[in-house]
Amino acid sequence: MNDRVVDEEGGAASDPGLRDVDFDNLLREVLNRVHSALDEQERLRLLLDAVVTMGADLSLDGVLSRIVTVASSLVDAQYAALGVLDVGQGRRLRTFVHHGMTPVQVSEIGDLPTGHGLLGLLIDDPRPIRLHEIAAHPASYGFPPNHPPMTSFLGVPVRIRDRVFGNLYLTEKQGPGDFTTEDEAVVVALAAAAGVAIENARLYEEAEQRQQWLSATAQITSLLADVTAEDDALEPLQAVADQARKVARADASWLVAGADADNLMIVAVSGLQVDPAAMRSLSLEHSLANMVVRTGEAMSVRDLAADPRALDPAAAVGGQRLGPAIVVPLSTRTGIEGALALAWFPENAYRFEAVDPAMPASFAEHAALAIQVARARGDQQRLAVFEDRDRIGRDLHDLVIQRLFAVGLSLQGAVRRSADPELAGKLSQAVDDLDDTIKDIRRTIFALGSLGESDDIQAEVTRLVDRAAATMKFRPTLQFEGPVRTLVAPEVAPDLLAVLGEALTNASRHAEATRVEVSLTVGDEINLTVVDDGRGISDHVIESGLGNMRERAHKHGGKLAVHTAPGQGTTVTWIVPT
């Protein structure tokens, strides 16, 4: 029998089950389901639009800001934030990008969260979390003063491949109710798309950083190509340190160079407010730079102060303590020119993690090659100068001195033939003047051969003493005390060498000494002392050479002291402040 009911007029009666349903409630339920379907379609459309727009931004900061804005709109959250995890062992929040709070609220709250409490729970266990009441959760620490009230909560991790990049936090669901499972599914999908967008942005930034390293290499090469022998030798080295620090976003950088690993010193510093002379005087015997120069391999540490192999140059001279560091060799085919160090303060350790060590290593290799080429070109230019000096010296010796000597002999002959005592005296004075002139020319010839523009003052002093030994038939003793290479300023070095050359010449030609002692002591002042056991200086000797030495001391705010007695030798002390 059919279950349908026929009315009196023969028409079909309504279904018994529907007669008991309120038509208004039924219509309301249908409309709610229709609106829910439309809302779901709208949210999916917004999610698709969000994925497309996130991929259009190539800057990492722009992507992060767009993610929190889109997430807030998708699930109707009043507040949204994205916490980026630090790469260190602590795994706390390094960056906190937020949306929904006014600048006034942010300033009143103070420091942004670093990943403790409920935020830390999501870091330690990266799985989605939905809460009705934040304060009711056992991991909640509560809110700081002036923090806006927040109740409902939705947290989702953001992954890049298998690694958690950060967490997406949403609070204060707008309208009645809490965040739903549909909200969670949408945010999880958004987080997955955000991971791809973040990875693309990071790859773009890495490509940009490689481009910056290549550009810095080109600038250094161009700068060193224009260096001449007359230029300051430290200027291109300072440029290398400055460029490396800028591109790596480091807080400090320094260049280490030396003849070998046992004679290293810091020749350029960038980013630290320290005394360059104090940095140059540091002993690098126990340092990463020393190890890098010896091994030729790059090294990195997470904390200079905690690593027993490392030296923190900033802390050693009273500056702020540095944290992680990268040290790469300045290597060429012929050997290691030195080392380049990059360092960051502990609070900026994330910048250290973002640097690919291969980039500064490649930059250092190109910089070392450019420095080597510039040095070779400078050597050629200096060689040309030395050749000109040698030619001038030969001309002065073979032509000018010989002619003056011949004139002096003629005047001496005229003195013997002269019957007028007054004329004979004037002729003798002229002969003495010619003799002094010849001495001055000989000193000039000696200076032309000795005043080379060497960066190593200690080597130049040694070379002068060795050259004097060939004339004296014995080698003077030589003693150094203090940081001679680092504290003798470039503007003082030529005068110091000239004074030493003059003192050695006097001891060789006039003192008839059998023993000469040379000592160079550098501390608060530069003290050059030359002692001989010769016949001493007569009271009637005209101070031509000594006058020049005294003038060179006064030029630098120093003094010249001469202690002598007939038959008891001479002590010449030349002192200028450092």
Automatic annotation (TrEMBL):
Keywords: Cytoplasm, Iron, Kinase, Magnesium, Metal-binding, Phosphoprotein, Transferase, Two-component regulatory system
Transmembrane segments: none
GO biological process: detection of hypoxia
GO molecular function, one term: heme binding
Histidine kinase domain ranges (all copies): 496-578
Cofactor field: Mg(2+); heme
InterPro entries reported in the protein's UniProt record: GAF, GAF-like_dom_sf, HATPase_C_sf, HATPase_dom, His_kinase_dom, Sensor_HK_TwoCompSys, Sig_transdc_His_kin_sub3_dim/P
Any one annotated GO CC term: membrane
Protein name: GAF domain-containing sensor histidine kinase
Species of the source: Nocardioides islandensis
